[in-house]
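Deliverable D2.4 — example input (structure tokens):
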């Protein structure tokens, strides 16, 4: 059994979003992403499906020309190989659920785009 808190030891950075692995199980990975208002994860994709949930705050989630606002408690699922971008409309915490074969390094690499 594993446990984690998305709110414990929470940090934000003025330089970029803060990505922290929370759980790594036999079937998937859970990641916390902490955004300050206005911070962006530029357009990117993964070959695996993902699920994104806003735990606190508000995120603009864009896929091509379509944009949705994900407020606290909202969740979105995305198939693999779909370009998408996230922008924090206010200080926000996002839960990213990854496929087991996806990597934390790939997620952190998005910050270098």
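Example output (designed residues):
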């Amino acid at each position: 059994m594993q446990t984690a808190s998305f709110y414990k030891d929470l940090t934000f950075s003025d330089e970029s979003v803060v990505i922290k692995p929370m759980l790594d199980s036999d079937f998937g990975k859970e990641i916390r992403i902490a955004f300050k208002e206005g911070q962006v994860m530029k357009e990117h994709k993964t070959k695996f499906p993902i699920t994104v949930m806003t735990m606190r705050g508000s995120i603009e989630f864009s896929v091509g020309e379509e944009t949705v606002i994900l407020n606290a408690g909202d969740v979105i699922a995305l198939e693999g190989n779909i370009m998408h971008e996230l922008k924090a409309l206010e200080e926000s915490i996002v839960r990213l659920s990854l496929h087991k074969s996806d990597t934390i390094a790939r997620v952190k690499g998005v910050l270098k785009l």
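The chain has one domain: 18-112.
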